[in-house]
Amino acid sequence: MKNWLDREAVGWIFWLTLFIALIYPGYLCTRAMTYNTASNMTRIGVGVFAAAIMSGVVSTGVNELLHRRRAKQHNERRKIERKEKRKRK
What is the pLDDT of residues 62-88, one digit of tens each? Predict the structure, then answer.
């Protein structure tokens, strides 16, 4: 198994974990924002939808950070290789 710092991207398991973790807070937030006349199923549905959106946003942000870090490492390696190539000539 890869080390967390060596990962290139987080996948669906990360999204699913976040989704499950955010369902209840999404429900509580929806419950606080709706009127008492709203049905419980409406609150649950909106809470699940909010949890899915937030999980997507967070996992996309983590993927972007991992991608940028990987690109920076790649660029640094290329820079060192170019310097070594110039020294050989």
Answer: 889 888 988 888 888 888 888 888 887
Answer whether 67's CB lies under 8 Å from 31's CB. no
Q: What are the extents of the domains in the chain?
A: 11-88
Nearest to 51 by CA among 30, 23, 28, 27: 23
Dump the DSSP string for the chain: ---GGG-S---HHHHHHHHHHHHHHHHHHHHHHS-TTS-HHHHHHHHHHHHHHHHHHHHHHHHHHHHHHHHHHHHHHHHHHHHHHHHH-
pTM summary value: 0.73
10 Å Cβ neighbour count for 22?
A: 20
